[in-house]
Amino acid sequence: MGFAWRIAVRFLVEGKMQTLLLIFGVAMGVAVVTYITALIDGLQGNTIRRTLGVQPHLTIRPVKDVPLAGRLATPGVDAAAQEQPRAQRTRSIENWMPLARSLEDASGVVAVSPMAGGTAIALRGEGSRAVAIVGVELERYDRIAGLSGKIVEGTARLGPGEAIVGRELAEDLGVRLGDRFSLSISRDTTESLRAVAIFDVGVRDVNRRNVYLPLRTAQSLLGIPGGVTQLDLTVTEVFDAERIAGRLRARLPYEIESWMQTNSQLLSALDAQTLSTRLIRGVVMLVVVLGIASVLVVSVVQKRKEIGILRAMGASRAQMTRVFLLQGALVSAAGSVLGAAIAWAMVAAFTALVKGADGRPLFPIVLDFETFAWVAAGATLAGVLAAVAPARRAAALDPAQAIRL
Amino acid sequence: MSAPAPARAAAATGARGDTPIVAMSAVHKSYDIGTPIEAEVLHGIDLVLARGEFAAMIGPSGSGKSTLLTLIGLLERPTSGEYRLLGRRIDTLDDDALTRARLDTLGFVFQFHHLIPAFDALENVAMPALIRDGRIDAAARARADALLEAVGLADARHRKPSQLSGGMQQRVAIARALMHDPPLVLADEPTGNLDTASSTAVFELMRRFNRESGTAFLIVTHDPRIADRCDRVIELVDGRLAR
Q: How far is A295 from chain B (nearest CA, A)?
């Protein structure tokens, strides 16, 4: 290998202009591929984070009420059954604590949070708004949705008689920190609460609709003492959610929904995006490969005499092949390093120039070492592949003819 | 002269010390076989070159000198006939084996020097070591240095070929051909491109290596003054040996 290494390096140094052009070409290809990969990873990661920021990975609910057939038809008598869907009552999982414990032990599950949810009217003075009441144990719920991290005013806590409201709802009702307002389910069921914190999850609808209150308060408001309307789960790998849901469905008599079902449209959009990114990357790589191959083919022709003399002196075909394969590998490795630097600059420029309305970057682009390592390895392999045809030409060169010319 | 040749040459051949280096019998060479322009260039060559010979090969243009040299030099295979190099049948070997035999037993000197421009004089001389061992170790460097000194170019060891005159380049090429101390050096018009003074210097150098290290030389030349000063003259006319 020492022979091929030294000859390859000298040939590259000798043809400085060609070598620099090659390295720069590879660098641009690598930069584009790395940048697009980082951009799309960042975008998709951000989209999924936003989606899951306000949603549990898995939700477990009681099964819906289904009307049963009133009477079996008498044998031999045709009967026409008419079924009408019935209004759903507030149903709850009564014995949720042991269930939650067993779910926490299930593999792939990180956290379980009970919730008593329903709808109510929020009232303050003249103002009234329809809201969703979300009764949670804050500590558990934080592990699902990280609510405490989204508090913009006040302190994150949910003691008895306390509530956390969204920024838009607070504006609509004119509620400031420490103000009282009431939640009403029916004429007789009303609860007075104090706003101790105001949240902003980044989605206006949620800010306008959700009111977080202690689980017990919600249970008594909804008339399901000790019960919960759903259990929210966080899993280790977000894309394992559906698999875990399937496993739980097989053993639990509840309705289990994963975020992947709820957001199937989003997921197929992301898939389409991933596919087109791959296509772009593939085409860019192909262009790089063709570029390297064509420059090396020219280089083989230029170096006919030298290849011939080396072969005459006793360099084998395999050695000459390696000389050119190594040249492909070397320019693409060097191009990869330069390309990483260019990609890094492009990411920095994007982060500096493209900003949201609030002046912060739209979403974080992560240019991690793993992405770069993959692209660099791919580019170097592509460089070697690109050098295969030129290397074969060099090896096949007839030394007797090359010397005579 | 520090080239320690005779001892090594004897060791390499061992019991076959009197085996000729080259033994060709009834060698034919045709080009473009099976096409309408098929042409036989060599018509049955019988040639023996003994160890330590200093021979010239002459003949008019187109007589087949270069072709015979590429056959002896294992760069091409004969169309028919038998070729033994150091007693080993060579015309049936595959490309890799021929390449290895070139590396181990032959040195080449060409009319147009054919140094590798990207390497300096010393590296060019040591190139056979780089090909064989993948590196130029201290011993190889010392030998290359000694050879450059022997050809009078000790001061030019770090100059690139482009910074050397034609005569100097040819002396580097001779030093390179001797790097592995081959039993036979093939020289194709080594003085064809040089002025009289340089030609004489190059010729004297080959003569000296032949005497001092017992290296056999086969020199293709058009120059009668060169041929006259060789021990033996092989003349090729129309693809046949005339003497």
A: 19
- Residue A29: C-alpha distances to residues A41, A159, A286, A384 (Å): 18, 57, 9, 15
Residue A169, φ and ψ in degrees, nearest 5: -65, -40
DSSP for residue A30: H
Say if the ipTM goes beyond 0.90. no
CA angle A108, A111, A117 (to 5 degrees): 125
Q: Do A312 and B76 touch (CB under 8 A)?
A: no
- Joined tokens for residue B28: 């034919």
CB contact B231 to A (< 8 Å): no
Residue A107 pLDDT level (bands cut at 50, 70, 90): confident
Mutate one of B31, B105, B115, B131 to test the A interface: name it (highest A CB count within 10 A): B131
Question: Residue A213 in contact with residue A155, Cβ under 8 Å?
Answer: no
Q: Which residues of B33-171 form beta strands (DSSP E)?
A: 39-49, 54-58, 80-85, 88-89, 106-109
CB contact, 8 Å: B131 with chain A? yes
Over residues A312-368, the pLDDT tens digits come to 999 999 999 999 999 999 999 999 999 999 999 988 888 888 877 776 777 777 778
Per-residue pLDDT reduced to its tens digit, A8-48: 999 999 989 999 999 999 999 999 998 998 888 888 888 88
As a whole number, the mean pLDDT across chain A is 88
Q: Where are the alpha helices (DSSP H) in A304-368?
A: 304-313, 317-353
Q: Do A400 and B127 touch (CB under 8 A)?
A: no
